[in-house]
Design brief:
Number of helices: 7
Strand content: 15-25%
Structural class: alpha/beta
Distance between the termini: 30 Å
Oligomer: single chain
CATH architecture of the largest domain: 3-Layer(aba) Sandwich
Shape: globular
Length: 229
């Protein structure tokens, strides 16, 4: 069975920006968002006046200690003042969902020009580590006594994937090898490295089968893209 998807306009990315991704950046979340947004606008040769709507992506409010974080970022940082604004959040896939949501706005004809901004301030001074936030998502009777953390979720998902699909840990290690090697070409990347599968397999086991080189460290940063018809 086939399904036709009607696309009114063909979107295109005409500008992009990216801050450094580092732990404990001095900039506020709003400043990180604006640095990335301004880079995207400058590369496109446009200003905020040329933007029809804004799509914002960010982690839960708790990480930044700011209530209604979407509205906070829209107020200047992401250029959403006086414009239709959408905030998307789908956990670890938020960074991917932001440009997808921006694509929807342009392809549907709802907006002619869209500014898509993603931001995270994971090393907020008020939170020792993002893991602290997730102490409160577990069942108080069956799970909390085990003192689980977020990496447990990744470990269970990875272990299930390996079992169900017959995937080896060596295959999964190739993801980190590829990503860290690709990052060598970008000055804003945080953990660029030329590693091997053996390096991943010998790194510290956090919660089996998740190892230290399988995951990224907590960091701060922002990215922005300018899309148009």
């Amino acid at each position: 069975m086939s399904r036709n998807i009607y696309i009114k306009h063909r979107p295109a990315v005409i500008g992009a920006g990216l801050t450094l991704f580092r732990r404990r950046m001095l900039e506020t979340p709003k400043e990180l968002a604006w640095i990335a947004a301004k880079q995207a606008l400058d590369e496109a040769g446009l200003t905020l006046k040329d933007i029809d709507c804004v799509v914002i992506g960010s982690a839960p409010d708790t990480f930044d200690g700011i209530h209604m974080k979407g509205e906070y970022l829209a107020d200047g940082g992401a250029g959403g003042v006086g414009k239709p604004t959408m905030r998307v959040f789908v956990g670890g896939a938020t960074g991917v969902m932001v440009p997808i949501a921006a694509w929807w706005h342009v392809a549907s004809g709802h907006c002619r020009t869209v500014l898509a901004v993603a931001e995270e301030k994971m090393s907020n001074a008020d939170i020792p580590h993002p893991q602290a936030v997730f102490r409160y998502i577990w069942d108080p009777v069956t799970e909390v006594p085990l003192q689980p953390n977020l990496i447990w979720i990744f470990a269970m998902e990875m272990h299930r994937y390996m079992y169900k699909c017959g995937v080896k840990k060596e295959d999964i290690a190739l993801v980190s090898v590829k990503n860290k090697r690709n990052a060598l070409d970008h000055p804003a990347a945080q953990v660029a490295a030329n590693i091997t599968v053996d390096d991943v397999l010998k790194s510290e086991v956090l919660v089996w089968p998740v190892q230290l080189l399988d995951i990224s460290p907590a960091s701060d940063g922002g990215s922005g893209i300018r899309g148009s018809q």
